[in-house]
Amino acid sequence: MTEIFLIRHAQAEGNRYHMMQGHWDGGVTALGRRQIEDLAERFRGLPLDAVYASDLYRARLTAEAAARWQALPVTPVRALREINVGPWEGRFFGDLQWERPEEIRRFLQDPDHWSLEGAETYADVTARAYPALEAIAKRHEGQRVAVVSHGITIRCLLAQIQGISLAETKNLPISGNTAVTRLLWQDGRFLAEYINDDSHLREENRVSWRRAGDLRSEPMDLKRSRADYERCYTDAWLFAHGDLAGFAPEPYSDAAAGHQRVKPGSVLRFYNGEESAGLLDMDPLRGRHAGYGWISLLYLEPEYRGRGCGVQLLARAYSFFRAQGRRAIRLHVADDNETALAFYRREGFRQIGTESGGHGKILLMEKKLGVRDDA
Questions:
Q1: 216-368: which CATH topology?
Q2: pLDDT tens digits for range 30-44
Q3: Which fold has domain 2-205?
Q4: Which residues in the chain show pLDDT less than 50?
Q5: How is 175-223 classified by DSSP, letter by letter?
Q6: Strand 275-283 relative to strand 292-300: parallel, antiparallel, unpaired?
């Protein structure tokens, strides 16, 4: 009998940023790294004979937690990758839900009828991943093995193991990050002893699903929407400084219009359905010589603050500047704006300088982009 611990990877950037990951090979978040430490503790004192993982970074890094105590190598297996979603790779859920709601519904709830040109189907994933898992089980007869894969891939594997049709796959949960499924291989078949167990995670390392939903974005037309931009900037200034002394919005809206002229898509308006949710203004020229991008304004409407939405705006900035080859993002925050400072620090920004402003000290904050252990 072979014992296999089938594990989903830790929280990755795509999970945190509400993106379609597929084969997009992003990094692992700070929370994901803490989850990996919890997973390592689960496997302390549990001898393993081998550790396998999808060859994508988020899976390989997670697998190192299981391998740690026996100093085992992690063997990469391409067939254990997540579903390839083709033209949806790296796209944001909110945008896709708005543009192609029926296709997103089928992807999540009717996988038997989901297909997309240039992408894999659930059946394709099963056809490559199940033989790979079976080969691992046969190779390690009588041994204990850890295998790290991905949400949809594990869902397809469990459907095959439990004799569930693709049409019924929607009834299987998507395993949580670092959740463990214990499989037993005997007499040429798998038995799932338990699935989706994340009892090793400390409470602070569990993902909170308290959020307003997946936000969509559209390039902002500053010719038609200048007054809206100025309203948002005025409200942001008032929230940050407590008064409007010495403030005039026109220079900021002029600058935003310039950003949009230089590179369309530099200024984005965010919506939850039809409802305005926020605004992001990125300067495509500032910092280009030094390899960093600049966020001029990140604004959430009052009713969307404190609901986990800000990270979706940051994610658009990461995507925007990564596409331009920038290695970091910078922005200014008032040193007494405790809410904003806590948010940016939580998202990995660090103070790299201090400047004087009309309302006191202004902190220069920076976040590195694309930092990975194998970079």
A1: Aminopeptidase (3.40.630)
A2: 999 999 999 999 999
A3: Rossmann fold (3.40.50)
A4: 210, 375
A5: PPTT-EEEEEEETTEEEEEEEEE-TTS-GGGSPP-------EEEE--HH
A6: antiparallel
